[in-house]
Amino acid sequence: MERQEQDVEMKSYEQLVVDQQKKTGKVTKQDFQMLSVIGKGSYGKVILVKKNDTGELYAMKVLKKSEILKRNQVEHTMTERRILGSVKHPFIVKMDYAFTSETKLFFVLEYCPGGELFFYLSQIGRFKEDAARFYASNILLALENLHSLHILYRDLKPENVLVGRDGYVKLADFGLSKENVEGNHEAKSLCGTAEYLSPEILLRQGHGKASDWWSFGAMIYEMLCGLPPFYSKEREKLYKNIKYGEPRLDMPFLSEAAKDLCRKLLEKDPNKRLGSGERDALDIKEHPWFECINWQAIAEKRVPPPYKPQLDQSTDTKHFPQEFTAMKLSPQDVESLKDVNDHGWGGFSYENTGVTNDADYEMNQS
């Protein structure tokens, strides 16, 4: 009898929460059904979820407040929240909601069922030039947009490039990004992923937009060759190679234009690197390797992609690593968590009230 009364009380409490949400219109975790884990990191998980009222699928990034505080990542997390809430671009992952609970932070993001570009590279080994050029054109337009807003991305790698349902790709994960950067030497932190760090970051010389173009060059090289340009299993040797070595470009499958582009993007001196000048991405767009690209058509998604994710159903997660999708959702993932109205995380909550379509994006050819 006592158990039944507790159950009734619990149902009454949960109904009260739902009724309150309906009154306030505020979105919380209770508005979503947890389906499966699709990613995991040191701060939390990424879970495929379905919104109860619309049936729409999202990728819910769940971060533990305790881990963020312990690792001094509060500012990075709030930077990511600000960027995701302000940037609207067809090749940058969209955030529709953000909210908090007593112990966690939630980003509710556009779901890209094709998974990470890294997944395809690991399966295929390397891409043909046309495929690499297509993905590079998407990434370049995303970086161009970020730079126009004085945002450094700082973590370009195949794991952070997601493949959408339509086969086009989007940048995700802005935890290492930096706002309000205009030049090439303003940022000072040593941050990023080892294989894609620019020499000026490693040498602590100050860095800026040119460091994103170095990572872009490393990414193009990896798509074409199968490994990052200065790869070594030994961290110290890797760093030495980045600072003082030259990328190997004598492979017979590389076109002369591809070799030239990699050489110019992997220039050690950030001031001489392609894209480092005031024209930023425009200089890279005009390189011969991109000569066949119609930038307006790419921006409007009128070019057929190299591959469209083949999905058995809308919730199919075959393009995500099995080490994640095989994980069982824990009770903590599924259970309702008390909403705390951003206590201690002022301004974190967010709801995308406007509908931004990819078609709304207009290319600036000037």
Alpha carbon gap, first and last residue? 74 Å
CA radius of gyration is 22 Å
The CATH superfamily of the largest domain is known as: Transferase(Phosphotransferase) domain 1
What is the topology, as strand order, of the major beta sheet?
1-2-3-5-4-8
Largest sheet: 6 strands, antiparallel
- Relative helix content: 25-40%
* Domains (count): 2
SSE sequence, one letter per element: HEEEHHEEHHEEHHHHHHHHE
Mean pLDDT: 87
Spans of at least 5 consecutive residues with low confidence:
1-24, 355-366
Query: How many β-strands, per DSSP?
Result: 8
Output the structural class.
Answer: alpha+beta
CATH topology of the largest domain: Transferase(Phosphotransferase), domain 1
CATH architectural type of the largest domain:
Orthogonal Bundle
Assess the beta-strand content as a share of residues: 5-15%
What would the principal axes of the Cα set say about the shape? globular
CATH class placement of the largest domain = Mainly Alpha
Question: In DSSP terms, counting alpha (H) and pi (I) runs of 4 or more, how many helices?
Answer: 13
Give an overview of the whole structure.
A six-stranded antiparallel beta sheet has the order 1-2-3-5-4-8. Strands 6-7 form a two-stranded antiparallel ribbon. It has helices spanning 2-24, 65-70, 74-86, 117-124, 129-148, 199-202, 209-225, 235-244, 256-265, 281-285, 295-299, 322-325, 331-334, and strands at 32-40, 44-51, 57-64, 95-100, 104-110, 161-163, 169-171, 350-351. It folds into two domains: 22-112 and 312-352, Phosphorylase Kinase, domain 1; 117-299, Transferase(Phosphotransferase) domain 1 (Transferase(Phosphotransferase), domain 1), CATH 1.10.510.10. The longest helix is centred in the first third of the chain and has 23 residues, at 2-24. The chain has 366 residues and is α+β, with helices and mostly antiparallel strands. Helix 5 (129-148) runs antiparallel to helix 7 and helix 7 packs antiparallel against helix 9 (256-265). It contains 13 helices and eight strands. The radius of gyration is 22 Å and the shape is globular. Its EC number is 2.7.11.1. It comes from Stylonychia lemnae (Ciliate). Residues 291-360 form the AGC-kinase C-terminal domain. Keywords: ATP-binding, Kinase, Nucleotide-binding, Phosphoprotein, Serine/threonine-protein kinase, Transferase.
